Amino acid sequence: MEKDDTRHLVEQLKSAGHLDRLFIGGEWVRPSGQARARVIDPSTEEAVAEIALGNAQDVASAVAEARRAFGAWSTSPAQNRAAILDRVHSLILERVELFAQAISLEMGAAIATARSAQVPNAAAHIRVARDSVSSYPFLTHRGDTAILREAIGVCALITPWNWPLYQITAKVGPALAAGCTVVLKPSELSPLSALLFAQVVHDAGVPAGVFNLVNGDGPEVGAAMAAHPDVDMISITGSTRAGVLVAQAAAPTVKRVAQELGGKSPNVILPDADFTRAVTAGVASGMRNVGQSCSAPTRMLVPRERLAEVERIAREAVSALVVGDPRSERTTHGPVANRAQFQRVQEMIAAGIDEGAQLVCGGPGRPQGLERGFYVRPTVFSGVDPQMRIAQEEIFGPVLCIIPYGSVDEAVEIANDTVYGLGAHVQGQDLAAARAVAARIRSGQVHINNPAWSPHAPFGGYKRSGNGREYGLEGLQEYLETKAILGFGQEQPA
Ligand code: NAD
């Protein structure tokens, strides 16, 4: 892939007028204010586009349009909604290359990762929502009580920059399937794929007002969405900091709040695991998407007496990574997504060294030969104490902590000893033992021996990793209210 391809993509968005507009009420409209934001290519640190940002007034217009559209959409036959989602799904797959380029440009994903994971996994959320709604029992009976599951209403959706399209479809797919209407605010740092998605929604024939897009920042647009009295539910994926602010702003209007927030997921390698496989796969999943995944297993827990062996395998696994230009087909790891993230990762690598963790590979600064761009050296620390900052705080970069344990009980204790509880991994040949450890880990997902990713498996957090579940059937139910009609089944009086 050439740089020219991404230039062409930006030109296309520009000439369509989408960079200067929001998508409200089925139309591309100019925002009411003058605020703009630059989109930075993290591989060059240069601005590649500028987008118009909305404000609280635009949020109000979008919410009004979503409210207007709610009656008809929420009562439309579920099969019709499934058919429209089917078109959304097909169009994403038809435009996979365009989306992959946009994502690579706006947040630095290696183009191969964007094509093979960022876009198809995003499409999978739409497919699952389509399938779930097709057969969902919206009406059930318990004695003479009818139990109805109804769309909750107008939903405000706030998404981050790390898996930009994927996080959008994980919310928009099930919300539309449930019969809700939505106002989406993607991350202001990764708006290009979101603009392409709005065009897909439009082209798929989603009725006007059902889907609205307001670009903007968190403090202005995100906060206005959270506080808006006519929004019934707000769902945010992002930092725990932003999730708390959203919940606080939402509290006075008692709207439902769904939060998918930070993580510091453990990867417990049991003594009987195949260490070469488990450690190699553990490095790969911890550093997948350059470590910018909320459920990345960034704490590898290993038997103390096997530490040297683990370090050797981890060093080898890291040496196979190709860090470089995200537009090169050979690259496995591009830069981290933005300057703030680069600084955060550098700060945390320095903190690990200061705290006395042992550097196995990587370290501060950029990889050799990459003087410009937010490139980070994939870094592995060993001998990490569970109480160190690098073992407790989400870093969101390619930084892996190897933590030794003495017994399996101690491993479980360390695994659970953070404020987070999003993902977890367990590796071991004795499946009964691995399942027993999985049962003791306090997190929303546990993976045993690196199974394939499943869009049907519910995803979400225990503790400060969030509230609510996304993906699969649970993801659809998140957007439903329960209504009991008592006496529904009584005999008609003669
Ligand atoms: P962030 O939480 O600030 O941004 C995520 C989304 O929330 C964006 O759309 C942002 O505009 C919005 N937002 C921010 N403040 C808001 C507010 N007050 N009200 C409403 N919406 C608001 O994420 P960030 O600052 O870009 O990243 C910082 C850290 O967040 C990362 O280092 C990482 O630890 C974490 N993060 C987690 C995820 C995840 O998938 N769970 C994704 C991105 C970032």
Task: Pick out its properties.
494 residues; alpha/beta; Aldehyde Dehydrogenase, Chain A, domain 1; Aldehyde Dehydrogenase, Chain A, domain 2; 2 domains; seven-stranded mixed beta sheet; six-stranded mixed beta sheet; 16 helices; 18% strand; globular; binds nicotinamide-adenine-dinucleotide
If you had to describe this structure to a student in words, what would you say it looks like?
The structure is a single chain. This protein is an alpha/beta fold and 494 residues long. The chain has helices spanning 3-15, 56-74, 78-94, 96-107, 111-134, 164-178, 192-203, 218-227, 240-250, 275-287, 307-319, 339-354, 389-392, 408-416, 431-440, 472-477, and strands at residues 22-24, 27-29, 36-41, 46-52, 139-142, 145-151, 154-158, 181-185, 211-213, 233-237, 256-260, 266-269, 299-303, 358-361, 379-382, 399-405, 425-427, 447-448, 466-467, 480-485. It is 41% helix and 18% strand. The strands form five sheets. It has a seven-stranded mixed β-sheet, sandwiched between helices. The chain has a six-stranded mixed β-sheet with strand order 9-8-7-10-11-19, with helices on both faces. The longest helix has 24 residues, at 111-134. The radius of gyration is 23 Å and the shape is globular. The model has no long low-confidence stretch (mean pLDDT 97). The structure holds nicotinamide-adenine-dinucleotide. Nicotinamide-adenine-dinucleotide binds at residues 158-160, 162, 185, 187-188, 217-219, 222-223, 226, 236-239, 242, 245-246, 260-262, 294, 341, 344, 394, 396.
